[in-house]
Amino acid sequence: MRCRLRILNVLASDVSWKVRQTAAFFSVCCSFFPLPGLSSAGEAQTHWKSAVDAHVQPYLEEQLVVGLTIGIIQGDVRSVHSYGVADTTTGEPPNSQTGYEIGSITKVFTGLLLADLVSSGQLRLDQGMVSLLSRESPAPGESIKAITLRHLATHSSGLPRMPTNFRPADVQDPYADYDRDRLYAFLATHHREHPVETHWEYSNLASGLLGQLMADQQGQDFSSLLLQRICHPLSMLDTEIATPGSKPKRLATGHRSDLQPAHPWHFTALAGAGAIRSNMRDMMNFAQFQLTLHQPDQESDLTEQGAIALRKAARLAWQIHRPAAAPDQFAMGLGWLVARDGQTRFHNGQTGGFHSAIFINQPLQQALILLSNTATEQIDRLAEDLFKVVAGRQVAPRKFER
């Protein structure tokens, strides 16, 4: 019972959301300055290795993580740094092609999908979500009708973090059996407790619902929509949606915070909230694409027509669509969280056995991605410290009290 309660609490509170700890960090982002440019991947690897090693080592010594891969981008130059093991049974180390569950970073992709459908004229941000429900779906409750697609993408829909009919048959794989019928049955009976727009509440339900609505509107499943409109244009060839029965590509073995092996997670109707599996190579393609949004399209090195079209959508998703309404909140793009400096976009994510984080700053032309096969919030502090280092600040490696 203790294990069951712990896992359900993780789902209800979404441990990937850490406002209080990240608020102090991002309040000083505006004081960062870019480091001298690096001209090659080899130079970047050498430049960052000692600093990354020093910051990662305390986490390995304290046995807080089993394995992790860190990606750094400065302009057009990338470096990848891997530590620990991807599989404890074989001792295989992780690398740029090791697969990880990225959890709630999926919400950034869901927001980008919405922006893409809006940019192509197929949807509107202020379109009521009920207009996307099929005729066969149960009629939604009256309070649902005021919710727009923008509200779903910015956690301002008034919907709770999780649906009240979320009762997983297997707490080790909790999202696998929450299907479309159960999702729409919830909407038919739910009475919204909070007003839209004015009340902010981080919601796995809202993001998952947005993904399902877009898939229904397009006559596709969420996985096909993601691959077609985002992954293929950006050459994210190993990125996939973890659906029941799917076979993962080189997925690392996930671990709980006590370092015991964790069951992989699978998603059905709430895939838009956290179902993506990816690797560092693909995630760096995604981050690099975000760093080029300021460039005129004709100056881009993107040759894929779909990626050029996607740039318009990414610019829309990058914009602020909901200002911070309170000191303990962040402004939001479509899926993105916006740092206090107004420049950095970020998100993190956690599943039963993985934790991840991504930070991107366009003016500095810098990005940091961290993927780990251990479900621990400690990873957020490591990612934040490394992003400070990349942005030019002097940060001492973390010391843990024994």
Any descriptors?
402 residues; three-stranded antiparallel sheet; Beta-lactamase; single chain; seven-stranded antiparallel sheet
What does this structure look like?
This protein has 12 helices and 10 strands. With 402 residues, it is of the alpha+beta class. The chain has one domain (2-390): Beta-lactamase (3-Layer(aba) Sandwich), CATH 3.40.710. A 7-stranded antiparallel β-sheet has the order 2-1-10-9-8-7-6, with helices on both faces. It has a 3-stranded antiparallel β-sheet with strand order 3-5-4. Helix 3 (41-61) packs antiparallel against helix 12 (378-390). The longest helix has 21 residues, at 41-61. The chain is globular. It starts with a helix and ends in a 12-residue tail after the last helix.
Would you kindly provide a brief summary of this structure?
The protein is of the alpha+beta class. It is 34% helix and 12% strand.
Q: What CATH architecture would you give? A: 3-Layer(aba) Sandwich
How big is the Rg? 20 Å
Got a strand count? 10
Strand residue percentage? 5-15%
Oligomer: single chain
Mean pLDDT: 88
Explain the layout of strands and helices.
Blueprint: H1 2-13, H2 19-26, H3 41-61, E1 67-74, E2 77-84, E3 100-101, H4 106-119, H5 149-153, H6 180-189, H7 204-218, H8 222-231, E4 240-241, H9 271-274, E5 276-278, H10 280-291, H11 305-318, E6 331-332, E7 337-338, E8 344-350, E9 355-361, E10 366-372, H12 378-390
Helix pairs in contact: 3-12, 4-7, 4-8, 4-11
